[in-house]
UniProtKB/TrEMBL annotation:
Residues 297-341 form the LysM domain. The keyword Nucleus does not apply. GO terms for molecular function: amidase activity. Residues 1-21 form the signal peptide. It comes from the Bacteria. Gene3D superfamilies: 1.10.530.10. It comes from Arachidicoccus soli. Pfam families: Glucosaminidase (PF01832), LysM (PF01476). PROSITE patterns: LYSM. Keywords: Hydrolase, Signal. The keyword ATP-binding does not apply. This is LysM peptidoglycan-binding domain-containing protein.
Length: 354
């Protein structure tokens, strides 16, 4: 089924890229807890719920989300006895559900998937396998757009939403454990997921994702998500099988090393950093050695990025990236250059002339 997704043009058009990213991050921060609670209650992966909420509600900026607390565009159906509102969608004047709160919308979304027979097969999937879930939703008729799974996967991978599914699973196993310890102490929840019976690809690059064309609102919303900056969990998580933590601006690396029970010198070595104690801007700090190879073949650069930036984002040793791509770690990359993560590049990527 298609979803009603009428967004405020003035909000979207007036937002800078930074403001757009800020909205996505704020949305995740606001709703991650209810998404994890719902995963524990019903089994719907928190990563999928958050990605759908971001996409369907335009980060909470759609008219349905703002005026009716409906973050997933769910229509009334015959069984609905709650509040109603009417908007044009597939047909004129269609009925959509109205909720008392956004949390009620999240709970109803979980119930909608859990209790309808045509989604039953989803709950036999590994809840960490967001790729299979994304393609399963499309297969079972949740959305008619052919690129709906790719859009969900891109959002999840851009914002590392899979970590919230890991945290929910860890919390379910040990409800009394401190939240900050979930990802660190339950590393079995961070295993690589192999795609099963849906023949879904494991990784989707943002450049490969066509923007759906059925509405201008959807084009704008997906474009917003594609360019927004990623957010990271507040606790230890994993990138390419290595433990990492996001360190905000101003954090003392010496204090971080002490807290994580690792020597300051070793922390500097793991992160290719020079002797410096204060984080000048937010960055990923690795607590374990990065891998020699990446999870995917290549990374598409953003304007001005360096191999150090790519090394941090993809969890690949900086020296290996220099060898694969035949440039130094300090050279700034041009836009949309293939940075090879697993093998020698056929040629060096284009860099920016200073």
């Amino acid at each position: 089924m298609r979803k009603f997704l009428l967004l405020s043009f003035s909000v979207m058009l007036c937002s800078s890229l930074f403001a757009q990213a800020d909205k996505v991050i704020a949305y995740i921060s606001q709703y991650k807890d209810i998404a994890m609670e719902e995963m524990i209650r019903t089994g719907v992966p928190a990563s999928i719920t958050l990605a759908q909420g971001i996409l369907e509600s335009g980060c909470g900026q759609s008219i349905l989300a703002r005026e009716s607390n409906n973050h997933f565009g769910i229509k009334c159906k015959t069984e609905w006895t709650g509040g109603k509102v009417y908007h044009d969608d597939d047909a004129r004047n269609e009925c959509f559900r109205v909720y008392a709160s956004a949390a009620d919308s999240y709970r109803d979304h979980s119930n909608f998937l859990k209790n309808r027979p045509y989604y039953t097969d989803l709950f036999s999937l590994d809840p960490r396998n967001y790729t299979a879930w994304a393609y399963g939703l499309k297969k079972d008729g949740y959305a008619t757009e052919k690129d709906y799974p790719k859009n969900l996967i891109h959002i999840i991978e851009t914002y590392h939403l899979e970590n919230y599914s890991d945290l929910a699973l860890a919390k379910e196993k040990n409800p009394n454990a401190p939240a900050a310890n979930y990802a660190l102490n339950n590393t079995d929840t961070n295993k690589d997921i192999t795609t099963n019976n849906l023949n879904a690809t494991a990784t989707v690059n943002s450049s490969d994702i066509p923007i759906p064309v059925h509405s201008e609102e959807r084009k704008m919303r997906v474009a917003q998500t594609m360019v927004a900056m990623p957010s990271y969990p507040v606790s230890v998580f994993k990138i390419n099988d290595a433990k990492v933590i996001y360190a905000p601006k101003g954090l003392s690396l010496m204090a971080l090393a002490d807290k994580q029970n690792i020597s300051y010198h070793r922390l500097m070595e793991l992160n290719d950093l020079k002797e410096s104690d204060i984080i000048s801007s937010g960055e990923l700090i690795y607590l374990q050695k990065k891998s020699k190879k990446g999870k995917k073949e290549f990374y598409l650069s953003k304007y001005g990025e360096t191999l150090k930036d790519v090394s941090d984002k993809e969890g690949v040793l900086l020296k290996k990236l220099e060898g694969y791509n035949h440039i130094s770690s300090t050279e700034k990359l041009a836009s949309n250059q293939k940075v090879y993560l697993r093998s020698d590049a056929p040629g060096a990527p284009k860099t920016i002339e200073e």
